[in-house]
Amino acid sequence: MKMTGAKILMECLLEQGVDTVFGYPGGTVINLYDELYKYQDKIRHVLTSHEQGASHAADGYARSTGKVGVCFVTSGPGATNIITGLATAHMDSSPVVIISCNVSEDLIGKDSFQEVDITGITMPITKCNYLVKRVEDLADIVRQSFAIARSGRPGPVFIDILSNVSAAECEYEPVAQEHHSTTGKLASLMQRASHNFESPKPNMDDINKLVEMIRESRKPLLICGGGVVRSRADKEFNEFADRIDSPVAITVMGGGGFRGRNNLTTGMIGMHGSQASNMACDGCDLLIAVGCRFSNRVALDPETFAKQAKIVHIDIDRSEINKNVKTDHHIIGDAKDVLAILNEQIEQQHHDEWKEYVFSFDTETIYEEESDTLTPKQITKAIAELLPQDTIVATDVGQHQMWAIQHFHFDYPGQLITSGGLGTMGFGLGAAIGAQMGNPDKRVIHITGDGSFRMNCNELATEQYYDLPIITFVFNNGALGMVRQWQTLIKGKRYSATDLDRGPDFVKLAEAYGLKGSRVTTVEELEAAIKDAIEWNHGYVIDCAIEMDEMVRPMVQGGKRITDFIVK
Amino acid sequence: MNEIKKHTIAVLVDNEAGVLSQVSRLFSRKGFNIESLAVGTTDNPEISRITIEVLADEDHAELIANQLRKLFIVHSLKVLPPEKSIRRELVLLKVRAENSVKRNEVIQIANIFRANILDVSPGALTLAMIGDEGKTEAFEKILEEFEILELARTGVVALERGQETINEDTKEKGEFNYGKNVL
């Protein structure tokens, strides 16, 4: 059947099972929006306040549901506004497809109004990107984009469609999703992928070698990385840890990959890792990292990192092997497959003595509690007690992010949504909106700081319009707390540009957007506010006053040995 | 710090728009200058071969090679071992020769180096020679006394000696392709 490019795109989205797109209209993308209007009973469009919010929402939707998040933007500034969202998704391997229209073919390359070379700009921050110049190519490119975004190591894909292509017509033949891999360019990509692409299985020699290493180990440590979350391999990982009887350290991106309340958990590892995690890392004789790329926030000093251990790296992306840390052995494969096979091969191990040593150190920070101020632990504790255990937590970036990850105990992949790699302040609210859209039956909360919240709080309008009952908790210390902490510890308390002694009043801000808010300074007030928010059941902002000088503890400086705590 | 030396990287890629910038950006990202770059189609018109020479230590060369291998547009990649590789480039030179004496001298040198004389004009000669950089540099150096008016080189292309090719199915190649699966 003959259709316009815009209509073909809608049909292709339906092939993929897309029912929600986030975005912002504009001049060049007007044909897509016109078609979207006709498809509104099948595809829901979520209009955000800013394109950046839309890109984070698509990302939050993808991370929480495991499905591909989709976002529409216009050319020029619309497209450049999603750069931070793309880079965030790219660093954290989140499957997002962003679709924009560029100016028409006769105008491209002439510095026309709202024209920018967006495929050039996005090349380093996408898994793949496309410029669609012929309507005949459109359906195939959309099918490739979704397959590439969600397969292998997931990541964002950008499609730039010339605006005349969206109006041009060609034949469209529907292809069910299960047949995509045998049509068009995907068929040739498939043939090129591994020689055993039909059922990619990890190499058995590699598996057997690791099994041998596990049998010989007396002091093993597992690291649960973001790959466990992306592959939804939590059950397999849990069985693996139980079988090896090994302590498990969790990275920021690994939150939810291994149950935070499991008694094998040593907590977070790295710069703000728990003493138990970091001491275990330093003392272990076998370190098995699953879906973790040894970033400089984990392997602070690659030379001394786990230097007594044989390091084994399990990852889907071969280019991660030996990139940051030299490893002794690696297995390439999807975490779920590799762990399932390993679980079949390994008999039950016991490491009581080693566990006793590791768990003699703290797995969580301990605070001195006074009645008239709130500590980070008190806030997270009140939240955990009053809200359901499966609450989805979206965070921004900074001290509040570390506290949330240290003190909440996540149960399942997709429960923690945080910008780990790029460290994007302003990520959280958009991501929470996306997560709530994808999980209408779950409670979604947004943990933020006064600095991060100020960046993209305009999305409160989106929260209000779509009536999303997200509760925002602002850890308000009147400062850019994480930078201030560094200034305290490293820069002789010269607080350059980190005081936030300025507006807005977050309660009034919430009210201005038609939401409710309250400011709390004690545990009692906080609990009352949470109960009020639950009852109100619309968007709510709780402004929690905390001490300006509260630090994220422990802390190890970048580049230092993982046990060189500068504060404990 | 590891020793900096020249690495020759051969890559088979899709013959498509934008491929060269995807490849070259991985060098510029780390601040490496590409010493030499040659691109051309292969026996399969859908696939191009890029030969890149870069000055880097072993670790960085390996890192760049690995990040290249993971791109969807890359079919195969090999860091060619210097002792087992044939490397050649074509150099075109325009040399001043204002009279017959000078002209004869240049022609003699060209013959010794087995260079071809492509054009003879009053005042200048245009020569072509093929070789690795040892040979081309020596040639260039000796022609300097006549004054080189213009010089163009194609960039090095290289193949491995013996039966081995860039296309072998190794375990490592399978591992990189694994990450590209689109199931």
In short:
Chain A is an alpha/beta fold. Chain A is built from 23 helices and 22 strands.
Features:
heterodimer, A: 568 residues, alpha/beta, Rossmann fold, six-stranded parallel sheet, 22 strands, B: 183 residues, alpha+beta, Alpha-Beta Plaits, 2 domains, five-stranded antiparallel sheet, four-stranded antiparallel sheet, elongated
Helices and strands, with pairings:
The complex is a heterodimer of chains A (568) and B (183).
Chain A: E1 2-4, H1 5-15, E2 20-23, H2 30-38, E3 44-47, H3 51-65, E4 69-73, H4 77-80, H5 83-91, E5 96-102, H6 118-122, E6 128-132, H7 135-150, E7 157-162, H8 163-167, E8 169-171, H9 184-192, H10 204-216, E9 220-224, H11 226-230, H12 234-244, E10 248-250, E11 265-268, H13 275-283, E12 286-290, E13 310-315, E14 329-332, H14 335-345, H15 352-358, H16 376-386, E15 392-395, H17 399-407, E16 416-417, H18 428-438, E17 444-449, H19 450-456, H20 460-465, E18 471-476, H21 481-490, H22 506-512, E19 516-520, H23 523-536, E20 540-545, E21 555-556, E22 565-567
Parallel strand pairs in A: 2-3, 2-4, 4-5, 5-7, 6-7, 9-10, 9-12, 10-11, 12-13, 13-14, 15-16, 15-17, 17-18, 18-20, 19-20
Antiparallel strand pairs in A: 1-8, 21-22
Helix pairs in contact in A: 1-2, 1-7, 3-5, 3-18, 12-14, 16-17, 16-23
Chain B: E1 5-14, H1 19-28, E2 34-41, E3 47-56, H2 58-69, E4 74-80, E5 85-97, H3 100-112, E6 116-121, E7 123-131, H4 133-143, E8 148-153, E9 157-160, H5 171-179
Antiparallel strand pairs in B: 1-3, 1-4, 2-3, 5-7, 5-8, 5-9, 6-7
